[in-house]
Amino acid sequence: MTPVHSSNLAAVGYSFGGRLTIEFHSGGLYQYWQVPPSVYAGLMRAESHGKYFHAWIKNRYPYRRLR
């Protein structure tokens, strides 16, 4: 997991096969599947990680809450 500077996201991890893990400052930890590498790269270089997440990831990929 890589810490990110965001008011909403605390850390982001990505593994081959398109598995994106996001930890939120609220304590929630979510895993998203089938996320293309280009979407992960976009998230990591976005000026606002939270805005990018809401625009390009949330409600677009299957996910589950880990905690």
Q: What's the layout of helices and strands?
A:
Elements lengths: L1 E2 L5 E7 L3 E6 L4 E4 L4 H9 L3 H8 L6 E3 L2
Antiparallel strand pairs: 1-2, 2-3, 3-4, 4-5
Number of strands: 5
* Spatial strand order of the main sheet: 1-2-3-4-5
Number of helices: 2
| Main sheet overview | 5 strands, antiparallel
- Based on secondary structure, the structural category is alpha+beta
Instruction: Quote the distance from N terminus to C terminus.
Output: 15 Å
Tell me what portion of residues adopts beta-strand conformation. 25-35%
Radius of gyration: 11 Å
Q: Report the average pLDDT across residues.
A: 97
Shape: globular
Helix content: 25-40%
H/E element sequence:
EEEEHHE
Low-confidence stretches: none
Which properties best describe this structure?
about 70 residues, alpha+beta, five-stranded antiparallel beta sheet, 5 strands, about 25% helix
Written overview of the protein:
The chain is of the alpha+beta class and 67 residues long. Helix content is 25%, strand content 33%. It has two helices and five strands, in the order E-E-E-E-H-H-E. A five-stranded antiparallel sheet has the order 1-2-3-4-5, covered by helices on one side. A hairpin with a 4-residue loop joins strand 3 and strand 4. The chain is globular, with a radius of gyration of 11 Å. The two termini are 15 Å apart. The mean pLDDT is 97.
